[in-house]
Design brief:
The chain is α+β, with helices and mostly antiparallel strands. The protein is built from 17 helices and 14 strands. The two termini are about 45 Å apart.
Length: about 500
Amino acid sequence: MNITATVYKDRVLACFTGKNIGGTMGYPMEFDRQKNIVTGYDESLDLPMPNDDLDLQLLWLIALEEKGCHITTERLAEYWQRYLTPHWAEYGISKVNMRSGILPPMSGTVNNEMYKNSNGAWIRSEIWACLAPAAPEAAARMALLDAMLDHGDGEGTWAEIFCAALESMAFAERDLPLLIRRALAFLPEDSGVYRAVTDACGCYDKRLSLDEARDFLLRHHRGRYGRSVSREDAEKGLGDGPIGYDAPLNVAIVVAGLLYGEGDFDKTVTSTIFFGEDTDCTVGTAAAVFGLLYGFDAISEKWKAPVGNRITVGTLNLGELGSYGDVLPKTVEELTERIYRQHRICAASFALPSAADGFDTAAMPAGTWAPSAGFLEDVRLTVTTQYFRSDFYAVRVDYLTKDCAITRDVPRKIRIVFENEYKTADIFTFRWILPEGVTVSPQKEGHFFAMLKGFPSGGSKKELEFTFLTQSDDPVQRYLLEITVEGRSSTLYVPVLFLLGCGS
């Protein structure tokens, strides 16, 4: 496939048209565990339904336009807190955490056992794929920075990684079973998303009916989702599952809908919605992937015409976004053009394939489609630690547990990993700035030497462990690590936050 600017724009237009269609189509049946037989929209329309799945991607577009493509989780977190209005589910939990000073990925993990395995992240993955077409690892790494905000170390994060990788490769590959296998390589085999998607593929390979496939997936991967369970499902024992365990099943439904759709748009969306569950999300993503695979003209006019080209926003603070939301794209065509501009910038910045120059996906190296050797290890590390950077060095805070709880008079250990990222060796000084009633061991301040990065004998990375003991009754305890460089003006402050007596 030769990806020119024209082809790229057609695919992106189709992707977000599909997102609009699927979100609108699935909205009336969202939250219901039931079979859905659908042949058209549930009601007459003159506008597409608003959908947080798309809203969040509009917000990320604004962040990219305002701050550049070198995104960080911290930067996304600022936009999240300023402009995202919902306070429910994982959105609300992450905002409460961040307002307390709990930074990503802990913001998506602490006090979030109920929702970290749910659907809020993978539903907003398309923008990362469109920024990095035919570059699945780049798309997956951007998706990781996004998902950690509200899903931390949960299945929700793996779900967005999978979807972003799949969608990125959809620019280059229409063999859907092959595409799915390649995307699965970006997940650990023991993840719930990996197992559920594998089972969805198995159902299709065995030529099970939609009814049989739905029954199988609900029996083996269901969570406790929704406001109602049909009598038929209740009689089959397909009611409650683990609270908030929704991402594996719903991503599997997307995959099943695409497989059973067999390259036909009508069949794809009606097969996907048949399964029930989080229907605006599943149908929206399945239709978006279809658009990336086949382009705008392959989407049936009966679905395109009622929603048109417009974008309806429902969960963003329009007053704060400037001129009551005038900075947001008003149409899918405008959205496509603006994503294309950001794609060009990202491609130039990160040496990714550029549609502006045109590229032949058939000529790309075989290794393009596989994650790098350390990818899974990097993800596992990233979702359990916090990173802080200066221009010349980086610091990682490892809480050594899945929470940031501290208990009065009980020792609490953390690990600080320092890495010199510049081409000169230096002596570094550290100093803890602590509130009254808190002590640290083995020492409050000290020095260490770090070799230049890439030096053959190593030594650029230093690991320091500290144990804190608090006698303070403050419910939120902020400790500050100051790092300076001998003879230089640069200073890095690393915040470490604990919650008194509060686990995850």
